[in-house]
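Example for tutorial group B:
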C-alpha cells in the first residue's frame, strides 16, 4: 500500500546524500529478543480470570511437566502471550521457590524490568532430568492484523515526515494512540517539541481532541518513562515518540498507529579502527515487523513506514548478533576467568570476526590483564575479571590507590555508568545550560561529573536540589549505589582509600592509566586524530570542551556517529603521560616515521 505521506528521497539527516547502504564493519543491527509486558484488555475481570485469558495458560501443566523432567527448557512466545508474567508464577505455585530457591526474571532494559515487576505483583497479592536434552516450546501470541503502508518514494528528512504523519493521523484517523520510532534522544526531543507546538496551533483552531505528547528513551528518568503507561481520557490522543526501547519487552496499551522511521541507533565495534561507537543504521526486517506489531496488541492497527517497499525488501532479514559487532574484551576476560584458555576455538553461537578477537586480546594484554601466553595475569587480570565493568574502567580503579585518588576515581567510574545526568527541559534550555556550567571545569567532562557527584553528596542527595540544578535525581542515586558496589571490590582487593584533595593531576593520570587506548591528538584540520590508527574524531557538542580552545591531547570514553564521529566524555591530558603510563603501547616519533617503521616490520 502507498502511505498518505508526501514524496521524498531516503536519507537520514546529517548525511551528504541519499542511500540506505552501510559497510558491514559498521553495521550494529541488533534485536533485543524478549517481549514481555502484556496489555490487559480484560480489565473488568478478576485478576485470576485475566490470567486464564492469556494464551500461555492452556499450556501451564505442560510447561510444569517439561520443567520437572528436563534440565533445560526454552519457551518461545509471541508478544502478549504471558510468558514473562505468568510462567514465574506457575513455577512459584508449583513449589519451585520452596526451601529458599529463586526464580529469576531478567529483562534487557530497565523500563521492562520495572513494568514486569509491577505486573507480577499486581497478579500475586525434583525427578531425574535428562541432562543432555533441551526442549523448545512455542506459545502462540494474541495479536490483531496490522495494515502496512509504504511511501512511494523515500523521505529527505524522516524527522519532519514523522511530525507530518502524526498530525495527519490525528486529523484524519479514528481513535487510538500513536507510537513513533526514531533513533535517539536528540531526535525524540526534537520531534516532541515540534509536535507540542503544532498541537497548540491546532488547538487554537478549535479542534476538540487534544494531543498528549510523551518521549520514551533509555536515558529518560524512570518517572518520566512510566508516564507512557498512564491512561488518558477519551478526549485526548496519546503520542509516544520513542527509540527502540519501545520496540521489544514492553507493550503500551492503546497503541493503534505506528510510525517507523526505518533506522535505529546501536552500538558497533569496528576492529579495523578499534573504535566502538553508537551508529545509526537501517533496521532489519525483523525489527521493522516487531515495530509494526506494536500497533496490533488490542485491536487492528496501522503501521506507516517512512520508506519504500523496495527499501524494505533490501533490508537484512535479521539483525547482526551483538557478539559479531561488539568489543570482545569483556567477553574474552570472562571466558578466561572461567578457565577457557583457548578462546579462539570456543564454540560461540554466533562466531565473532577473527579481527575483533585479536583486537580484544591486544587490549587486554596492553592493560596487563593477559600475559604473553594470553593467560590471565595474577593478580591484576583475575581482579579485572571480577569487575562488572569495561576492563578499562576496572584497570583505572585498581590503579587509583597508586595515584592517591581512589575516592575520586570511584565517583567518576560510577557516574560514567549512568546516562543523561544533565536534564535539559525543552522549555528551559538556556536556564538549564547556565546552571550546568557551574559544574564545568577546563580539564573536561570527567572532572565535571566528579563535581556534580560531590555537590550531590554535599547536599545530602536532595531531590529538590537536583530539580533546581536540572540534574537527574534517580540517576545520581543510582550512581551512589554503583559507587558503593565498586567500593566493596576495592576494599576486597586492598586498594588504599585515598583522596587527591582537590589536585586534578593524579586523577587525570589515573584516567590515562585505564583509557590510554582511547587517546587522540588535535590536528591542523581542526579535528582530532586517534593515536592508534589516525582516525578522525570530533568533540561532541555536549562536552564542556566543545566551546573551549581545543586541548592538544585528549582521552575519551566512547564514540558516537551521526554526521561525524564524536567523542563523548572527553578530558584533556598531557602527551607525556601516554609514554609514561603506557610505554608498551606508545612510542616517541612522528606519525609518518612510526607508520614507516610498522610497514617495515610487516614486510619482514
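The residue assignment follows.
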Amino acid at each position: 500500500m502507498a502511505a498518505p505521506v508526501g514524496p521524498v528521497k531516503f536519507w537520514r539527516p546529517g548525511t551528504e546524500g541519499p542511500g540506505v547502504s552501510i559497510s558491514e564493519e559498521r553495521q550494529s543491527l541488533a534485536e533485543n529478543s524478549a517481549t514481555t509486558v502484556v496489555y490487559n484488555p480484560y480489565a473488568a475481570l478478576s485478576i485470576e480470570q485475566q490470567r486464564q485469558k492469556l494464551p500461555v495458560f492452556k499450556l501451564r501443566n505442560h510447561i510444569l511437566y517439561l520443567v520437572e523432567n528436563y534440565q533445560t527448557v526454552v519457551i518461545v512466545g509471541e508478544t502478549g502471550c504471558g510468558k514473562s508474567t505468568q510462567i514465574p508464577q506457575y513455577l512459584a505455585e508449583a513449589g519451585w521457590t520452596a526451601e529458599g530457591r529463586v526464580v529469576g526474571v531478567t529483562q534487557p532494559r530497565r523500563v521492562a524490568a520495572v513494568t514486569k515487576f509491577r505486573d507480577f505483583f499486581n497478579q500475586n497479592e525434583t525427578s531425574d532430568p535428562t541432562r543432555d536434552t533441551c526442549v523448545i516450546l512455542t506459545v502462540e501470541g494474541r495479536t490483531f492484523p496490522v495494515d502496512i503502508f509504504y511511501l512511494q518514494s523515500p523521505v529527505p528528512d524522516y524527522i519532519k515526515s514523522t511530525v507530518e504523519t502524526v498530525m495527519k493521523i490525528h486529523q484524519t484517523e479514528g481513535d487510538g494512540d500513536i507510537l513513533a520510532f526514531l533513533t535517539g534522544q536528540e531526535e525524540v526531543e526534537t520531534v516532541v517539541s515540534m509536535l507540542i507546538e503544532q498541537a497548540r496551533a491546532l488547538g487554537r483552531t478549535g479542534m476538540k481532541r487534544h494531543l498528549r505528547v510523551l518521549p520514551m528513551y533509555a536515558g529518560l528518568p524512570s518517572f518520566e518513562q512510566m508516564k507512557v503507561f498512564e491512561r488518558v481520557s477519551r478526549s485526548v490522543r496519546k503520542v509516544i515518540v520513542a527509540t527502540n526501547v519501545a520496540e521489544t519487552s514492553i507493550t503500551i496499551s492503546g497503541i493503534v498507529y505506528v510510525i517507523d522511521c526505518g533506522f535505529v541507533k546501536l552500538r558497533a565495534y569496528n576492529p579495523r579502527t578499534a573504535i566502538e561507537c553508537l551508529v545509526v543504521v537501517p533496521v532489519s526486517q525483523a525489527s521493522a515487523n516487531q515495530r509494526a506489531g506494536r500497533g496490533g496488541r488490542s485491536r487492528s492497527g496501522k503501521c506507516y513506514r517512512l520508506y519504500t517497499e523496495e527499501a524494505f525488501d533490501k533490508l537484512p532479514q535479521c539483525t547482526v548478533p551483538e557478539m559479531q559487532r561488539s568489543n570482545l574484551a569483556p567477553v574474552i576476560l570472562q571466558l578466561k576467568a572461567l578457565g577457557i584458555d583457548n578462546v579462539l576455538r570456543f564454540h560461540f553461537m554466533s562466531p565473532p570476526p577473527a579481527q575483533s578477537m585479536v583486537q580484544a586480546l591486544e587490549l587486554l594484554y596492553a592493560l596487563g590483564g593477559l600475559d604473553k601466553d594470553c593467560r590471565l595475569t595474577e593478580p591484576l587480570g583475575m581482579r579485572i575479571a571480577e569487575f562488572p565493568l569495561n576492563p578499562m574502567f576496572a584497570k583505572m580503579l585498581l590503579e587509583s590507590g597508586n595515584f592517591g585518588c581512589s575516592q575520586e576515581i570511584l565517583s567518576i567510574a560510577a557516574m560514567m555508568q549512568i546516562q543523561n545526568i544533565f536534564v535539559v527541559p525543552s522549555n528551559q534550555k538556556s536556564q538549564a545550560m547556565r546552571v550546568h556550567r557551574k559544574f564545568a571545569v577546563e580539564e573536561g567532562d570527567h572532572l565535571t561529573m566528579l563535581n556534580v557527584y560531590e555537590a550531590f553528596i554535599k547536599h545530602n542527595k536532595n531531590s529538590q536540589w537536583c530539580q533546581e540544578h536540572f540534574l537527574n535525581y534517580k540517576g545520581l542515586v543510582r550512581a551512589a549505589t554503583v559507587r558503593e558496589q565498586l567500593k566493596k571490590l576495592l576494599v576486597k582487593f586492598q586498594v588504599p582509600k585515598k583522596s587527591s584533595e582537590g589536585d586534578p593531576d593524579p586523577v587525570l593520570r589515573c584516567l590515562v592509566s585505564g583509557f590510554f587506548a582511547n587517546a587522540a591528538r588535535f590536528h591542523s584540520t581542526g579535528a582530532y586524530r586517534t593515536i592508534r590508527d589516525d582516525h578522525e574524531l570530533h568533540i561532541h557538542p555536549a562536552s564542556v570542551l566543545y566551546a573551549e580552545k581545543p586541548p592538544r591531547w585528549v582521552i575519551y570514553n566512547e564514540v558516537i556517529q551521526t554526521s561525524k564521529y564524536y567523542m563523548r566524555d572527553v578530558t584533556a591530558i598531557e602527551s607525556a603521560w601516554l609514554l609514561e603510563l603506557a610505554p608498551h603501547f606508545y612510542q616517541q616519533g612522528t606519525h609518518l616515521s612510526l607508520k614507516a617503521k610498522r610497514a617495515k616490520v610487516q614486510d619482514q
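The longest strand covers residues 130-139. Compare this with the pattern of hydrophobic and polar residues in the output above.
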